[in-house]
Every structure is written in structure tokens, then in C-alpha cells.
Amino acid sequence: MATIFSSPPPPPIFSSSSSSTTTTTTTTTISKPYLSFKHQQPLATTLTAAAAIATILTASPPSLAAESSPYNIYYGTAASAANYGGYGGNSNKKDSAEYIYEVPEGWKERLISKVEKGTNGTDSEFYNPKKKTEREYLTFLSGFRQLAPKDAVLNNLALSDVNLQDIISNADNVSTEEVKDEKGQVYYVYEIDGVAFHSLISVTCANNKLYAHFVNAPTPEWNRDKDVLTHVHKSFKTIV
To answer: Is pLDDT at 46 greater than 70 in this prediction?
Structure first.
């Protein structure tokens, strides 16, 4: 019986090594706030990012008007030969313009002489430098309060324009149309379709003058540039 009670007591539940391990674990747990604070974004960076996002969300889309146009607006004065002073450097041209039309980017202006202006009333002309027979020009005649019948107008225009006579005489089809703009002004529109040439003409009366705007091109160029040439044809209008 004495032998049973002489055996050594059982080891304690918590040894010194176990206490050390627990302390290390506790220390790691306490340091978590430090780790969390270390990865927190600075306030200035957060505000900058928020401002950038707000700018993106509130910025207006780019305006289509800001994009460069493939056309330039020409302002014509329809000055008489006696008052004709040439082109370029006239800062008041826009203010004194009687008509406008658009010109494709890259087209060149041809200088009109006083003799030509006085003979057939040509006031302005532009051409495609890659194909000089592809062009647009405007003529005017004074002393016209209103338009004559459509056939008479076209015949009278051809009398003063040899090239137009040739285009009409070799045409497969000549169509005419009367249209009105938003102000009620009447325009005669002619389309001359031929094997060799194509022509679009717009004629109107304003300011006691008859204005005729021409867009001419050889048929191959017309087929290639139809949309551009039709656009410049429709861009002509008088400034009443």
C-alpha cells in the first residue's frame, strides 16, 4: 500500500514552455492594429482619386463642332467690275458678303480678272488641284428682280458660258427643279448628266441680281466624288 503513494506527482497542466508560446501568440494578436494601419491609404491620395473619378463622371463629351471640317466657307461680295479690287486681305469680306458656299478642303482659288468679271459676270471660282476640271464657281448678273421661266434662265446662262453650252449639247439628260429655302426664297436647280461631264447648277434672284452657282466635274470624278460635290452644291445660298 505505501508503494502506491510514493510515485511522483503528475506534471503541472501549464509548463513554462507552454506559457512562452501563449505569450508569443498574444503578442502577434496585439500587433494587428499596427499592420492594419500600415496598409491604410493616406487621406490626400484618397481625395485625389475621388476628385479624378468625379471629373470623369461629370466631364462633357467632346463637341462635334470642335472637330475640323472638311469644308471651308467662302463669302462672296458680287462686286461689279468697276469696284473689283482682287482677292485676299479683305477683312470686311464677310461683313459685305452677298452669298456663301462651301469649298472642299485643299481646293485652290482661281483669281478672276476684271475683264472676265465684266464679260460673263464670274465672281469666284475654286478647283481641285488634282483635277482642275473639277471645279465650282459663281456668276452674277445685275438688274434681275425675279427669275424668268426655268428653260429661259438655263438658255441665257449658256449664252455667256461656252463650257456650259458644250455640257448641255452633249448631255444625256437635263433635269430641272424649283425649291424654296426656309425663308421662302426660290431656287432653280439644274442637273446635267452627260457621258463626259456632270453639272449641278443653282440659280436664284436677290438684291436685284441673278446668282448662278455651278459645280462641274468630268464623269469619272463625279462618280468618285459625288457626295462631296453634291454637298458643296447644296451649300450655296444668298445673304439677303
So the answer is: no
Nearest to 207 by CA among 18, 76, 35: 76
Strand partners of residue 122: 139
Distance CA 121, CA 133 (A): 19
- What are the tens digits of pLDDT across the range 167-200? 999 999 999 999 999 999 999 999 999 989 999 9
Residue 6 confidence (pLDDT) above 60:
no
pLDDT recorded at residue 79: 82
Report the chain's mean pLDDT, rounded to a whole number: 78
Per the rule left: phi > 0, alpha: psi between -120 and 50, beta: everything else, 164 is alpha
Quote the CA–CA distance of 189 and 123 in Å, as a whole number.
Answer: 19
Burial class (CB in 10 A: 0-12, 13-18, 19+), 134: buried
Residue 52 amino acid letter? A
Q: Which residues contact 217 (CB under 8 A, 6 or more apart)?
A: 131, 133, 134, 135, 197, 198, 199, 225, 229
DSSP strand E in the chain: where? 71-76, 99-104, 108-109, 122-128, 131-142, 171-180, 186-194, 197-206, 209-218, 237-238
The answer to whether 138 and 101 are in contact (CB under 8 A) is: yes
pTM across the whole model: 0.69
